[in-house]
Amino acid sequence: KILILDFGSQFTQLIARRVRELSVYCEIHPYNHFPEIDETVKGVILSGSPCSVRDEDSPRLDLSQFRGKLPLLGVCYGAQLLAHTAGGEVAPSKIREYGRAMLHTEHASRTRLFQNILADTQVWMSHGDTIVSVPSGFKVIGSTETVSVAAFRIEGEETYGIQFHPEVTHSLEGKEVLKNFIVDICGCHQDWTPSNFVDETVQDLKKKLGDDKVVMALSGGVDSTVAAMLVHRAIGKNLFCIFVDNGLLRKDEFEQVLHSYQDMGLNIKGVDSKDQFYIALNGLTDPEDKRKAIGRTFIEVFDHEAHLLEGVSWLGQGTIYPDVIESVSVKGPSATIKSHHNVGGLPDFMKLKVVEPLRTLFKDEVRAVGRELQISQNILGRHPFPGPGLAIRILGDITADKVAILQEVDAIFINKLKDRGLYDKVWQAGAILLPIQSVGVMGDERTYERVVALRAVASVDGMTADWVHLPYDFLADVSNEIINRVKGVNRVVYDISSKPPATIEWE
Ligand code: XMP
């Protein structure tokens, strides 16, 4: 595997994704908190950072533990750290380098890092400091018009530094550079494939779980479904799945998803707890209060159901890698590590051991594993849907009537997206029921009814999002259908806000 040491760059996860795309397993760890380097580690990558090596309190690392012992690649800050700690000079750039640049690598001194790369290749720069001079033993192997030390190698070692970001797609041959490092220089085998992952994980789960029983809550989402199928492959009927109808799902979703799970051979129990959730939500209007009430009720229901099962000793969860990566926070005078809040999951008090077969996977890898397991595209291709469901798309208090209205509106919108072939082009879509009424006319009648908003966004991971420019005729069609079909709605608006500053959900 490859170890990626994180100095707090926004691109660190992207480096890991690229390495994984090359079918090589890698892990991200904070630069000041990483596991012992054993023989499974074939190479180390030092990430970028928002800090400057010139600052006294910028993140530091004793590089002697790697240099000359393992292949080492410093990216941006990582490269500057290599140069700076060896006695090179790092200074503020005269102009802040941000964006595309042409990297020139000398033919005569071609290194393995740049083999098969064009002599002049487009790279992406994002840095405020620049390496002005390198110490002896360092050989400059690439430069751009404004950066003379854009890449270097330490002679006699497999240590490299690059100022550009190979992980960003604007570095057109960035992936090739990473491949040269990982496959050729580190000697990693490209065998991190969905099919190997499934085989190894199922073997591990068999060993770990033996004849033990596992309980899992499924949501209809990709992560919990793929996690359950892996556990199911390993222990079959000893996996007990619970799918809760919280009364906040999409129209007909509970029945449909339950059937899919049954078709997949899962031992699944559907639990209708709609009333319990509506009672818990009664009168609540604050979004966080609603979320808390839903979370609490879910634990109550799940705890009750789990207690009905005998001899269960494990809780299965669909936790994925972005939830468990310890992130480095380098803001403020000293760098600190913070763990994500949702590590380990909810029911601490249930005293169950936790099994999380997807802990090492990124979302796109979860989907690939899902395809390997032949889970239907219907589940794998689903838009993300928030745990609190329609409750955070109904502004104000929740009633069964409002849920019914929103379910109809949402179903019209989503089905039309599918009919027009737009569903897969949109990252997430849904409808929001607004807490206002507006005047309209229908026939000769004056109406005073509800307003709904439609939202459709393009995104990669939900952290940022753009509203989607859906065709006007499509919006017109959806709007007509909603107003004609859904009683109680006489106005439809389309949300044209991007994130940031707006969030995807309205609550
Ligand atoms: P926001 O609204 O923060 O949403 O831009 C980003 C993504 O997260 C989902 N989301 C949630 N998911 N519980 C969840 O499981 C929640 O409370 C929650 N709030 C937002 C949202 O649907 C979007 O995909």
Give the helix/strand layout.
Layout: E1 2-6, H1 12-21, E2 26-30, E3 43-46, E4 72-75, H2 77-85, E5 89-104, E6 120-133, E7 138-142, E8 151-154, E9 159-162, H3 174-185, H4 194-209, E10 213-218, H5 222-235, E11 239-245, H6 253-263, E12 268-272, H7 274-281, H8 287-308, E13 312-316, H9 321-324, E14 327-329, E15 336-338, E16 353-355, H10 363-372, H11 377-380, H12 400-419, E17 428-442, E18 445-459, E19 465-467, H13 472-485, E20 489-494
Parallel strand pairs: 1-2, 1-3, 3-4, 4-9, 10-11, 10-13, 11-12, 13-16, 18-20
Antiparallel strand pairs: 5-6, 7-8, 8-9, 14-15, 17-18, 18-19
Pathway: Purine metabolism; GMP biosynthesis; GMP from XMP (L-Gln route): step 1/1
GO molecular function: ATP binding; GMP synthase activity
Enzyme class: ligase
Describe the structure.
The protein has 507 residues and is of the alpha/beta class. The protein has three domains: 2-185, Class I glutamine amidotransferase (GATase) domain (Rossmann fold, 3-Layer(aba) Sandwich), CATH 3.40.50; 194-325 and 335-380, Rossmann fold, CATH 3.40.50.620; 399-494, GMP Synthetase, Chain A, domain 3. The chain is 30% helix and 26% strand. The chain is built from 13 helices and 20 strands. The protein has helices at residues 12-21, 77-85, 174-185, 194-209, 222-235, 253-263, 274-281, 287-308, 321-324, 363-372, 377-380, 400-419, 472-485, and strands at residues 2-6, 26-30, 43-46, 72-75, 89-104, 120-133, 138-142, 151-154, 159-162, 213-218, 239-245, 268-272, 312-316, 327-329, 336-338, 353-355, 428-442, 445-459, 465-467, 489-494. It has a seven-stranded mixed β-sheet, sandwiched between helices. A five-stranded parallel β-sheet has the order 12-11-10-13-16, with helices on both faces. Strands 17, 18, 19 and 20 form a four-stranded mixed β-sheet that branches. A hairpin with an 8-residue loop joins β7 (138-142) and β8. α12 (400-419) packs antiparallel against α13. The radius of gyration is 26 Å and the shape is globular. Mean pLDDT is 93; it is low at 332-346. Bound molecules: xanthosine-5'-monophosphate.
